[in-house]
Design a protein that fits this description.
With 84 residues, the protein is mostly beta strands. It has a single domain, classed as Lipocalin (Beta Barrel), CATH 2.40.128. The protein has no helices and 8 strands. The strands form 2 sheets. It has a 4-stranded antiparallel β-sheet with strand order 1-2-3-4, with no helix packed on it. Strand 3 and strand 4 form a beta hairpin.
C-alpha cells in the first residue's frame, strides 16, 4: 500500500491507495487518480493545478522497485521507493 503525506507552503499533499486506485489528494480533495500501478510504460504521472501551482506525483519503474516523487511546480518535495 502506498500512502504518505507532505506539506509545502501550507498545501497538504497526499498520495494513497483507495479501492484499487492510486489517488493524488491536495488539501483533502482528490485531484487526480488512476486504476493502479500495473501500467505498461516506464513512468506515469498524476497531476493537478492548485492555486496556479502544478502539483505532480511521478512514478518511475526501476528493475525491482518503483520510485514515486512528489513535485510542487519544479521542486521535488519527497521521493519514496516502492517494492513491486
Amino acid at each position: 500500500m502506498i500512502a504518505w503525506k507532505t506539506e509545502y507552503k501550507g498545501t497538504k499533499i497526499e498520495v494513497r491507495n483507495s479501492h484499487q486506485k492510486i489517488e493524488l489528494v491536495v488539501d483533502d480533495n482528490i485531484v487526480d487518480a488512476c486504476q493502479d500501478l500495473k501500467f505498461k510504460g516506464k513512468s506515469m504521472e498524476l497531476k493537478a493545478d492548485h492555486d496556479g501551482h502544478l502539483i505532480r506525483c511521478v512514478f518511475e519503474k526501476k528493475v525491482l522497485c518503483m520510485m514515486a516523487k512528489i513535485y510542487y511546480d519544479d521542486r521535488m518535495l519527497e521521493g519514496k521507493e516502492i517494492v513491486i
